[in-house]
Design brief:
The complex is a heterodimer of chains A (473) and B (119). By secondary structure, chain A is an all-alpha fold. In chain A, 70% of the residues lie in helices and 0% in strands. Chain A contains 22 helices and no strands. Chain A is globular and about 60 Å long. Chain A starts with a helix and ends in a 19-residue tail after the last helix. By secondary structure, chain B is an alpha/beta fold. Chain B contains 4 helices and 4 strands; from the N terminus they run αααβαβββ. In chain B, helix 4 links the parallel strand 1 and strand 2. The chains are: A mainly alpha (473), B alpha/beta (119).
Amino acid sequence: MTVLLARAVLGAAVATIAVGGGGLAWLALHGTVPDALLPLGAALGLAAAWRHRPPPPPGAPAPRAVTALGAALLLALAALLAYGALATPSRHWDGVVAWDLKANVLAAQPTLQQPFFRDPTVYCHSRDYPLLQPLLVALLERWGLPGRLWFPAAWCFAVAAVGIAARAAGHPGRIAWLFAVAAAVTPIWLSPTGGSFDSGYGDALCCAWLGGAACGLATGNHGLLAAATALLVLQKPEGLPYAGALLAAAWLRGDARALRAAVLATAAAGTLLLWLQHDLRTFGAGTDVLLLAPAAGAGAALLLAADALLRRRGAAPRWRWFGLTLLVPALVAALWLGGGGADGVVGAHFADPGRPLQRLDRLPRVLQAIGTWACGRGAFGLAFVVPLAIAVQLWWHGRTSRTPALGVWLVLAVPLWCVPFLWSPLDELDAHLRATLPRVLLHWTAAAWVWAAVQPTLGLEGRAALPTGPAEP
Amino acid sequence: MPSSRWSWTVLALLLAHLVWGLARVPRVTARRAADIADYRQRGAADYLLADARLDGAPAIAELAARTGAGQRLGRRGTDRGVVEFAAALLWPRLLVTANADAGTPVLVATRTALVVAPQ
């Protein structure tokens, strides 16, 4: 069952990036996305699933009763989310104004060459926001299928990612079920409010893609890692810095294959994201892909070449930290020079690079709010407390974390959680924290569950199947 | 069996999360069903604007009744607030600041309310 599920998850990710990425490229080229792209993407996903032959998981399978109970519970919850997603269009603010409207526009005509996108006098909310989700919904609708089926499907994807990662780590089946069901019932995932999986917001899909990338990183499935990373970058503007943190984590841990997969996915998807952002912002008048693509390619080549050089020389970890301090400014400068900093959602943050320093006094309040929301509010249950407890356990016993790159990625996420509140042009901190922080934390819940699920804990982990990697610094 | 005090703690936390999450399911199911019933009964505009404590559902209904799909409707006022819903709820009509179709009414938006004005 785990093998089948792992193949299904990879197939789903490949199909989604084929449809979504392909469709967005079509839009960027000012064409009309052909309806045939959906079955073509599905066929590619099936082929990827067919070719993927993961090894059987090492731990004991779950007893049939546990499997039956777990599966019944997850089916019931998936049905609940499907009902919530399909019974009506979005019932909350962002879902209605930012996501549904664009999905409806693209369902009518899957092209940017129409007044809604091209006429500056037409009202268009968050004009340059990523179009992956609206396009996916629209393409399904054009086949007469319920487009909002993506939302419960994304929940299934995230839950499966946690379960697969737990099994691949050598946990017995019953422990994998425990982690998968625990993730599945995370309060904010099932909540009837804005932001949950059936709300139509973009944050839940962002969470699912992050979970997929974390699963790919943890299980060594680099196809899944690349596909999920590309989806993450194309889903929301936050995806690009999240992917940047992934690159930094893989770089710092010297995980060459993960780094290669993530770099290529980030460079390609980042180019597409910024190209479209610029195109939407300028009403199709200007294109900066000729600047963007070489900048992204040069950045990717620089990172991979530097990694190869350090590996060949057997460089100590401190050299990787030193290299990172040089590479980050270089890559950010490449992004800015490539047009990402010129305008749009990303550019709004680059417009005043000194702003975070001016607002450093906000940091204690931001960190306090992060702690309160992540660990002290009901919205996340114990989704962040469990990984923290496991981390303390590992540290206490002097054990090495499995998949250290994933651990580093999660640690690097914490500064990213602070960034919107220090760098955003919005001034009202408390209102901004209330509106944004729960969603930022939601993005990382699936990845946090994946990390927790692959750690040697509970004394029930069975024999280790994953590479443990060098000890964490 | 768990191998240490910390392992028991992790297991207990995991089970506590599970029980907590499962215990919420009946409540979130009922709330979701109630929201959906409310949405269907009141209609999208009334439900969404009331939920966001905004006024303007009658203006949206009036514009939807008086204009047809694909028409360009003039708008004045702020870009933020209730007009965000109006753009979504009036689709496939377009809200424009120039070159509105002749004879169509104009939507005037403040942050929290909408009114229909003659062109």
